[in-house]
User: What shape does this take?
Amino acid sequence: MRLDTTAGPDPGALPGSFPGGDLGQYCLAVALCPMPALLCDPEGLILAANPLLERMLGYDESGLSGLSVTALIPEPQREGHAALMQAFHQLPRRRSMNGGAEVSVRRRDGALLPVEVLLNPVQVDQRALTFTAFLDTSARRRAERRLRDVLNAAATAMILVDETGRIRLVNAAACTLLGGPEEALLEHSVDHFLPPDLHAAHRVHRANYHIASSPRAMAMNRPLKVVGLDGVERPVNIALRPVETESGQRVVATIYDLSETFSYQQELKSRADGLAALNEELTQFAYSASHDLRAPLATISGLLDLCLEDLEAGDTAECRRNIHAALETSQRNIHKVEAVLTLARAGMQEVPVERMELDEAVAGAWSRLTRDRADAPGFVIDCDGPVALMTERRTLLTAIENLLSNALRFHDPERDAPWVAVRIRTRARKVSICVSDNGLGIPDTEQPRVFEMFRRSARSEGHGLGLSLVMKHVRRLGGLVSLSSSPSGTDVILSFDDMEVLS
Amino acid sequence: MIPTYIVDDVESDRYIARRRLSKTGLFGPVQEAPGGSEFLDLYFAGTDAEAPPPLILMDINMPELSGFETLEALRLRLAGDPGTGARNQVVAVFSSSDNERDIERSSALGIVQHFFTKPLDDAAIAEILETYRASGAL
Assistant: This one.
C-alpha cells in the first residue's frame, strides 16, 4: 500500500530561479536552504551540502563536500546512475527524480533512507551544476504505516478510490474480499470489481458522486455484488465517504461482506423448512394414526355388535364366523401396532456403527426372506468395488430388508423368469444401493405417495409402513431414496454421499 | 328398493354395512367394491332408471384411490355426462375417524350428504332413510 504523492503541490519545491552570481552565492544558498540540499557538478562531485543534509545522512560538518554523489546512491543502483545523470544534462530542467516517486538515499552508515529528490539545473560560471534538495519521507512513511496498520486491523474491507475510479489504497480485508494481492488490486479501476453488466452504469454513478459527494450507502443499502479477481461473486453492502487529501478528492468505500449473513439466513431458513417438514410429518402421523389405528377397533366393535344380535337370534354359525373375523382383525392389529412403534422408535435409539460387508449382509437378508419359499425369484448381487462399510449396520440392513421383502411380495406371477437384483456402487465416500425387480411395478399415480405412512398397495396385505421405515432409516444415515417404476419392474435407489467405505 | 354401493377395502367393514342395510329390507341390489376404481366401473356400468336414487357408502382410507379421490372422479364424470348427471344419488362417507379435516373435505366436495364414523350402526341407516323419505324418493 502506498499513498499517492504524484500530484498536488510539491513541498520540496525551490524558487524557480536564483539571482545571478558566482559559486559562493550558490553555496550560501545551499547552506541557508531550509531543507536538506546539495550542489554538485556535472560529474556528480558534491561542491556544497548543507548541515541539514549532513545530519540527515550522518556525516560530519563539511563531510559531504568533495565526495561523489555516488556515495549517496544505494549500491544496486550505482551502476546505472551515471547514465541517468548524463541524460539529465542533455535536457536539463527542473524536475523530481524518478517522476516524483520515492527513492532511497544511502546514509554514511549504509542504512537507506526514503526520500523524494528534487533536481534543479543552474548555470554557474558556464558550468551546468545541479541544485539538489531532499525531502525525508520516512515520517510520512511511518504515518502511512500507522494508517495501514489501522486499516489492516479493521475487519471490514476498505478501499480508497480517486476521481478517475482508480483504486489507490486497499486494506488486508479488502484483499481477501476482492480476491487478490494489494499490487493486483491497485492496477484496476473500481468498476472492474462489479458484475460486468454494471460496469458502464457504475462509471456514470461514480462521476455523479464526485460532483455531489456526501457520506451515504451505495445502492440505497440494497445488497450489491462484487466480483473478486478470483472470480468469486460476493454479496456486499458498501458505504461511501468522500475525503479530501493533498492529492485531491478521494472516496473511501467501506465494503461489508454479507456472504456469512446470507449463508446464516439460508441456514435459518433451511432449519425453519426442516421444522415445518417435521411438523407436517407429525400432523400426517397423527392423522394417519387416528385413521389407521382406530380402523381395526371400529371393525371389531361392529363385528361384535353383530355377534350379539346373531346370538340373540340363535344363529351361532354366523356368530362364530364373526368372532373369527374379529379375532383375525385384532391379531392383525397387534402386528400393526408393533410396526408403528418400530417406525416411531426409528431414529430415537442409539445404533452402534459397525463394519458391514454389504454383499454378505444383502445375501443373508435374502436367504432369510426366501427360506420357506420354493417359488422365490432369481437373485443376483452385483458389486464393482469395495463393499465393506462403517455404518449403522442394523439401520441400513432393515431398510434393505424392507426393499427386498417388497420386491419379493410384488413379483409378477405371470412372468417366466422373475428376478430381484441388488447393485452396489461405491466411489470414495459415495455409496449407492439399487434394489431392482421385474415385478408388477407401482402405478404412476401411486409413486409420489408410496413413502407415506399406512400407504399400501391394494394388492398387498401389508400395513403400509415398510417404505416409510425405509425412508426414515435412510434419512437417518444421511442418504436419499429415489424410486422409478414401470409395469416391467421397479428400481429403488438408496444413495449416500458421505459414508465410510473400507477398502 | 334403493340400489346401494358399498365401497371399502376392508372385507369385514363391507360385511358390517351389508348386514346393517339388509336389516331394513329397503336396500337392493347391494353391490360391493374393494376400491374406488372398481366402484366407478360398477356405477357407470348401467342403472335402473325406475329405481330411487342410489346410495353410495364410501370409505375414506383406501389404497390407491382414496374415498375423496373416488368421489371427485365421480363428480367430474357426472358433470360431464348429462345422462347420468340428471340422476341424483345419496352419498354417505363413513370413516374410522371423525377428523375435522375429513368432515370439511367431505362437505367441500358438494355431493356428500352424510358423514358417519365406523362401525356403521342402525342409527346411521335410519338417518339415511330419513333423507330418502324427506325427498319423497321412498
Summary: Residues 1-20 of chain A have pLDDT under 50 and may be disordered. The first helix of chain A runs from residue 23 to 32.
